[in-house]
Amino acid sequence: MKKLEGKVALVTDGTSGIGLATAKRFVAEGAYVFITGRRQTELDAAVKEIGKNVTGVQSDASNLADLDRLFATIEQEQGHLAVLFANAGGGEIAPLGAITEEHFDTTFNTNVKGLLFTVQKALPLLPEGASIILNASTASTVGTPAFSVYSATKAAVRSFARNWTLDLKERKIRVNAISPGVVPTPGYDQLGLSRILAKGENMDLHQLTAIEDIRQTKARYCRFIDLKQWDDFKNLFMPTVHLTFHGVQGELLYQFTDLQIFIDQTATMLDKAQTIHQVHNPEVQLTSETTARTIWSMEDWITYPEDVKGLFKALHGFGHYYETLELRESRWLTTTLSLKRTILTIA
Question: Residue 40 sits in which domain range?
Answer without folding.
Answer: 8-202
